[in-house]
TrEMBL record, chains A, B:
Keywords for this protein: Heme, Iron, Metal-binding, Oxidoreductase, Peroxidase, Signal
Compositionally biased region (Basic and acidic residues): 1-11
Lineage: Bacteria, Bacillati, Actinomycetota, Actinomycetes, Micrococcales
Stretches for region Disordered: 1-33, 62-81, 244-267
Species the sequence originates in: Brachybacterium vulturis
Protein name listed in UniProt: Deferrochelatase/peroxidase EfeB
Pfam families in UniProt: Dyp_perox_C, Dyp_perox_N
Length: 458, 458
């Protein structure tokens, strides 16, 4: 009755939004591919190694030469490489992130945890369970909790990082004797901004694990088992589930929509921008502060942003357009003469265009405020997700954006944009920042490494 | 760059668990189909009308004669039929449920809401937005919030019900002049049980909407827009997101695993059990209390059950087996001589088998306690989901089962089992019931109906 997988049939390619879009009510791109790896050909390019590092895309047990499976539930990614997985990996649909407080004072115990996490993460990233296939020994406590047993790898990725408080305690004291290895960006910490309502217990943390997958249960399984392994060494501080990725990290993906209904992250960095561009904006370089032990890593910048959906939903369409600076339908930047005429999401916004003396993209429009053109070329790679957490006492859905960005140096390419955003972005009236965290994501796991953060912790 | 959907390639069928299972470490059913519509042939049976009612499975815009799309993101189901959708529909991967308190005292306003909900639900169930393709009128407030625009229907279903408090207030007073139409099962209410820790604000409600989909964002979109339509007439009371369906409602689906790692709901009713069996156990009959206006409906029984994962995870495998009464690997009921030898999940548990004078399936094992054999043949159709809601102050993942069952009469086939479970089931030591609700699900929407619950509210 079970066990046979369903045969996927070739689907007819749907027309591209641009092709479909004649403006009539039936022209909507109603059934574009949700997960949107464009085609077997596109996947083939990926398999050819554009992910860089130690071989790129591993489709199940297939080698790098074979095309990647087109069903995201069948995909798996290698854990080892120049960079950690889960950053430029095509963004999956579901997220489970957990921050931990380290409870030991012994660096050797931390190293042991990083070894155990590596073994378990590598097993889970192939769709295996922790300890491999379990359940042979009836008298033993199972090493894996089992809720993903028999489930495919589902594109799962596991990404590990460390926060400021991993290096120094609240009084600035060296916790494990490696405080001098802390990079300056972490030491400086996250600046505070006006209008924040940050919950301390939902912010920060000594360590972080980001698990992404195309099946929420597989992501949950990863976090649960890594949390279990940590018992006695590190304890959960906060967790976050996310759905409906709000960013693409690859040009092979559709741009998704956020909970305000807009395509989000159109102009952010993508995997295909290539090693030079990603090296400039995403990856920590040897020459950067802390780079001798952290090169190949990145900074994971987290902002949990509640979105006031009910207020937003009462705005007229033109108001929404002008706050975002884009058309809601196709995601195209506003143009003259008709702000809805544009159908190409990817054209460069014309920030200089005016109509009757006023900028077509308003001065406080979101895309102008965060544009690289107005931020000295600063770019980030985004990997955010929507969240929904019940409803509040007023009966409003408690929902928003769990924003995640990866940057090479947040002091240059994140904090200045965040400050411009909270002070001048028209969108901020509908947002509330409720949690914040910054972690240095450890470099990729080398072929012979035996723990996450080998260079940092050895 | 966007808009072309990915070509699904035919996947090799993986071996069935029974075929694969030689007990060695490589014999695990590691890549069985997660969503598990077995094959195009299986889908063809569905398309042939086994769902009953007004034509069954509508694959996108395909007619009932065409096979249903094998990609669950491409599926859609007709809203109208003898029964509401979202009950016997093959269980989707994600859930968003919302309960509402009615804020008006005017039955005509409730009727208007039920009309508006029907129009919107019918549009959304085809993958359309509320009001059809929006965003033509820049000066108007968009009728749809837009976050699922361009997303496929993703198997979304929308199911509407009413609670006891819809008919009578806390003092038993008739709210809308239709209290005499309240069926006895609702009037009696849900009995209280020992050991419950029910949160009133997360329990009960006047109305309920269950939205299920294979994309969480599509389910969220449905609830959000229906909530918005209700403003002024009904307000959110509580919401619940769920993932990783813990039940199958069709034999074409794999049995999923719950957060204790066990296959769940193996022996519960399935769509394929047929009209007679479902009529006996699931659908309200004309002759039942309230049946003249509710025939074709059902009772939606909700229990939010927190699972003590950390405690469970410390049990030895044999202890877990004996608490559940099944093998963790294949889900087979325990047998003699070797409790792990069974590989067939679907064989009937041998409740009489003994070994050394003791029952092989222990007296307090979960499957014995809830078995139809020990409950006068009572059966239910289950449609539960896992939930995870951050972590508690002790750093434990706050997670569990959002249990949903559909039954014809909870007094016969749900409350007695629940009482046996809370008083004698070994599993209860690891569970905590934190919320409870009961709704009568309205009959299916007839071809000419203009509102949900037409027979009840006319």
């Amino acid at each position: 009755m079970t066990g046979r997988r369903d045969h996927r049939e070739d689907a007819e390619p749907a027309p591209a939004p641009g092709q479909a879009g004649g403006g009539g009510p039936d022209a909507a791109p109603r059934s574009v591919g949700r997960r949107g790896l464009l085609s077997a050909a596109g996947a083939g390019i990926l398999a050819g190694g554009m992910l860089g590092g130690f071989g790129g895309f591993a489709g199940g047990r297939a080698s790098a030469e074979e095309p990647a499976p087109s069903d995201p539930l069948d995909r798996s990614y290698p854990l080892r490489g120049e960079h950690q997985q889960g950053i430029t990996t095509p963004a999956q649909d579901y997220l489970f992130t957990a921050a931990f407080d380290v409870t030991t004072t012994d660096l050797d115990e931390v190293r042991r945890l990083m070894q155990q996490w590596l073994v378990a993460a590598e097993q889970m990233s192939t769709g295996d369970l922790v300890g491999g296939t379990p359940l042979a020994d009836l008298q033993a406590v199972p090493r894996d909790t089992g809720e993903a047993w028999g489930y495919p790898a589902s594109s799962v990725t596991i990404t590990v990082g460390a926060g400021r408080s991993f290096f120094v305690d609240a009084e600035g004291r060296d916790r494990f004797g490696i405080a001098e290895r802390m990079p300056e960006a972490l030491a400086d910490g996250v600046p505070r901004f006006a209008g924040e309502a940050l919950q301390a217990e939902r912010s920060d943390g000594d360590l972080v694990i980001q698990a992404c997958a195309d099946d929420a249960q597989v992501a949950m399984h990863a976090i649960r088992n890594l949390t279990r392994i940590a018992v006695g060494t590190a304890a959960l501080r906060w967790t976050q589930m996310g759905y409906g990725r709000t960013s693409s990290t690859s040009t092979t993906q559709e741009t998704p929509r956020n909970l305000f209904g807009y395509k989000d992250g159109t102009n952010n960095l993508k995997q295909e921008d290539g090693a030079e561009e990603l090296g400039r904006h995403v990856w920590i370089d040897r020459a950067d502060s802390g780079g001798e032990r952290l090169a190949g890593g990145s900074y994971m910048m987290i902002r949990k942003i509640r979105m006031n959906l009910e207020t937003w939903d009462r705005l007229r369409l033109i108001e929404q357009h002008e706050i975002i600076g884009r058309d809601k339908r196709f995601g195209a930047p506003l143009t003259v003469p008709d702000p809805t005429s544009g159908e190409d999401e990817f054209i460069d916004p014309d920030l200089a265009a005016t109509e009757d003396g006023s900028p077509v993209i308003p001065r406080d429009a979101h895309i102008r405020v965060v544009s690289p053109h107005t931020n000295k070329g600063a770019s980030m790679l985004r990997r955010g997700f929507n969240y929904t957490e019940g409803s509040d006492s007023l009966g409003r859905i408690d929902a928003g954006l769990f924003f995640i960005a990866y940057v090479r140096d947040p002091r240059e390419s994140f904090f200045p944009i965040l400050e411009r955003m909270v002070s001048t972005d028209a969108l901020e009236e509908y947002l509330r920042h409720v949690a914040s965290a910054m972690f240095v994501v450890l470099p990729g796991v080398g072929a012979k490494d035996t723990m996450f953060g080998q260079a940092l912790l050895s």
